[in-house]
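User: Please run a holo structure prediction.
Assistant: Happy to. Please share the sequence and the ligand.
User: Here you go; the ligand is zinc ion.
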Amino acid sequence: MGTWTGDPSILSYVESRLRRGIYRGIGEFHLAVGEAGSAVVRGFVQLATRHGIFLHAHTDDVAVEELLRLDPKVRVLWAHAGMSAGADTVGRLLDRYPNLSVELALRSDVAPGGQLDPAWRSLFLRHPERFMVGTDTWVTSQWDRLPDIQAGIRGWLRQLPREVAEQFAFKNAARLTGKHY
Ligand SMILES: [Zn+2]
């Protein structure tokens, strides 16, 4: 996991899997600052643009920008909104990179205590087509917690206009993955 950006065999493996034609994205993968310039990551960007699919990157604001700069056509889904990036940083990147989408798994700071944070709320209303909720079942215990996680998400979605909530809940994800409602 930590060495994939230096391992060309991962690129050829994914390339062969993509021939099945059933995939809509590549990831979630971790990417550290300075790794986007590697030949393997550049190869993944080419692969994604050629297949018209997105990259799902778990990375911070600096590295996601390095990734986005490789090709203006590459579509990136930013996992956890960078995990710790604030609404101002996320907003600046959304303004600058039209092919960036953001998912909000594990971001309880969006609605501390269940109440939608005002800075996030205004960003959500400014970019209603660019966000989606996420659950991230990264360990099996997350499946046990899933009903609670979903209830928490629904709690803050209800504090948004219904149309925006629907975009976050499924419409934006459907568009990113090539489905239409
Ligand atoms: Zn992650």
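Residues 28, 58, 79-80, 136 surround zinc ion (CB under 6 Å).
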